[in-house]
Design goal:
393 residues; alpha/beta; DNA polymerase, domain 1; TIM Barrel; 2 domains; 10-stranded mixed beta sheet; two-stranded parallel ribbon; 12 helices; 14 strands; elongated; binds iron/sulfur cluster
């Protein structure tokens, strides 16, 4: 499929409903209101989610008048890809622009058996972590369910390119995408993604309703059909929402961005930590495990000389002993002008070993896309000219 923008003269995209954010049930209800049988709704969803259709025009098993009627009421994709960066390690970052000119970043991270899409939940971020580019501009606006799902679909469509035999690509990157999509013995475009992580811009649990609606569409067998266990929601830690998430009946993974093992340092790094203590997070994380049976992941960005000493490792061990969790260590990708540095790999391994020797299940996550603007918010920040006035700062 080509990625042409599904707009019609005289019909602004914003006035139409966003199909990617609509459940099959709601679309079926629309069809019923227009005297269309339920199987028509299924056909449309098959085109969009299985076959990657980006316009009604290509749905050749629907009559022309029906296609025209649908295009009058619905838009499938509302964004335009305004920038794309490719790393030598296969990571691809897309900058999407929405009709109001707000922008969002989403990233494809191919890694042997996993093909992960990292997506954003808000435009900008209200949290303002001291080490993060996204926090600099504050929150601009919430993303809708359709805008969240659309990022995952845009990333998935990168596999369509790699598998499109009519447009042979010879680059190593295209080959890495092709081999990634063959991992489970299939090269079908709709098998492109294996995992979704809400680790882009924004705090997903501060946009709870839209995030959950998007997760259900990504997870649904009529939608993107990605298992809940392959979907990770990453949060700086909102205990009430964590408890609510635990009771949604979804087997999603929860990752808590801890980044510091004590309240004093955490408050310096993460302004929202003033509202929530590490003890509160541990209590919410324990409850999440008790209700779902899913072990919580603690994300910990290693900042040289700030949170990576042996004393910090001992404190982190004490946190880990109070809940069922594993720890992901990430060496910081420096952001210009923020004043934090990346620890060397020796320091990261020493920190990990200290945790491991005390019984903590710990991994050092590979930094991906180091040769592109890989830290969250960097691409959007460089393209600040495309973003509207910030809502707060
Ligand atoms: S690290 Fe995450 S929560 Fe913190 S400012 Fe950046 S996007 Fe927001």
């Amino acid at each position: 499929m080509t990625n042409h923008h599904d707009t019609q003269p005289g019909t602004p995209a914003e006035s139409r409903r966003h199909l990617l954010g609509t459940s099959l049930e709601a679309f079926t209800a629309f069809c019923a209101e227009h005297d269309l049988p339920a199987y028509r709704a299924k056909q449309v969803y098959e085109w969009v989610f299985r076959r990657g259709a980006d316009s009604f025009e290509v749905m050749t098993n629907l009559s022309k008048p029906l296609r025209a009627m649908l295009a009058e009421h619905w838009v499938i994709y509302t964004s335009q890809v305004v920038q794309r960066q490719e790393s030598t390690d296969g990571t691809i970052k897309l900058l999407l622009q929405w009709p109001d000119r707000a922008t969002s970043e989403c990233v494809l991270i191919p890694d042997d058996k996993r093909r992960t899409a990292c997506i954003s939940s808000q435009v900008g971020c209200p949290v303002g972590c001291a080490f993060c580019a996204s926090g600099i501009g504050g929150l601009q606006r919430q993303l809708s369910p359709g805008e969240i799902v659309e990022q995952a679909m845009r990333v998935r469509s990168l596999f369509n390119e790699a598998n499109d035999s009519s447009e042979p690509r010879t680059s190593a990157r295209a080959e890495s995408l092709r081999s990634a999509s063959r991992v489970h013995g299939s090269a079908k475009p709709d098998d492109g993604l294996s995992n979704i992580v809400f680790m882009g811009l924004g705090e997903p649990l501060a946009n709870y309703g839209a995030t959950l609606a998007a997760v259900r569409i990504i997870n649904a067998d009529w939608g993107m059909n990605i298992g809940a266990r392959k979907i990770t929601i990453s949060t700086v830690g909102l205990p009430t929402q964590i408890r609510k998430l635990a009771r949604e009946g979804l087997q999603v993974n929860l990752a808590i961005s801890l980044h510091a093992p004590n309240d004093g340092l955490r408050k310096k790094l993460i302004p929202w930590a003033k509202k929530t203590s590490v003890a509160d997070l541990v209590a919410a994380g324990r409850e999440f495990f008790d209700v779902t049976g899913r072990e919580v992941t603690l994300e910990y960005i290693l900042l040289a000389g700030v949170n990576d000493t042996m004393e910090h490792a001992h404190e982190l061990t004490r946190v880990c002993r109070r809940m069922r969790c594993n720890v992901n260590l990430i060496r910081y990708n420096p952001v210009a002008d923020l004043g934090f540095e990346r620890p060397d790999s020796y320091a990261a391994h020493r920190f990990a070993e200290e945790l491991r020797s005390r019984g903590v299940n710990v991994h050092i996550r590979k930094s991906r896309g180091a040769d592109i603007d890989a830290a969250c918010g960097q691409l959007r920040r460089k393209n600040a000219i495309t973003t509207p006035t910030r809502a707060n700062g």
